[in-house]
Specification:
Layout (H helix, E strand, L loop, with lengths): L4 H20 L3 H7 L45 H21 L1 H12 L7 H12 L8 H30 L1 H6 L1 H14 L1
Catalytic activity: phosphate(in) + H(+)(in) = phosphate(out) + H(+)(out)
Pfam family, one: Mito_carr
Family: Belongs to the mitochondrial carrier (TC 2.A.29) family.
Amino acid sequence: LSEQPAAVKRRRHLKRLNRSSATMYPTSLTQMARANPFSAPLFTLQKVEEPQHSLSGQRPRRLAAAAAADEGDSCEFGSQKYFVLCGFGGILSCGTTHTAVVPLDLVKCRMQVNPDKYKSIGNGFAVTVREDGMRGLAKGWAPTFIGYSMQGLCKFGFYEVFKILYSDMMGEENTYLWRTSLYLAASASAEFF
């Protein structure tokens, strides 16, 4: 069977793209970075030779991915301390940020309940401060802080727990190949709780 002209043109075009892609993305790191994570495990990386010198005559740069942590600065991945720190990070990020916007939320709710009295956000703040003082803007901060802190604790802490649990169930190779789906399943499980 002979190929149709459109298919031949498409194949030639793809070959040209692959050649230009190899020169445009010379390192395997940049090849990996441009790979679509949602197409795993079907994506492929091309092995490309590193250029020995740059076009402008300068020496090539050397890149370092990460620095080694000092012994006292970190904790072991997957340890009890690691999960506690992740949960504490969730408390700090969710509890404090949601508590910080309590005044805005209070005024917004008052505008919805009584639009004649609270005509705009600026007017709502002014009326609330005039009637209740500055402390009036903080009404409801405690339940907001407690509730969102618990949500952050579960969301951040359980995400790491489920990520490790599912990774152990799948095995090392499948974990890498299906990492995006694994992260999705872990976050959905954490959000459930």
